[in-house]
Amino acid sequence: MATTLSLINSILTNDKYKPILALIKGFRNGVVYGCKVRFPHSLVMTFLFKSGTLTEKLQGILEATYIHAKNLAFFTVIYKVITGALQWLQTEKNVGHIFLAASIAGYTVFGNYNKVNEQVNLYLLSRIIYGLAQLSVKKGYLPKPTKEPFPMFAALVWGIALLLFEYEREILQTSMKSSMTYLYDDSNTWHSLKDFLIYNK
Question: Which GO terms describe its cellular component (predicted)?
Answer without folding.
Answer: peroxisomal membrane
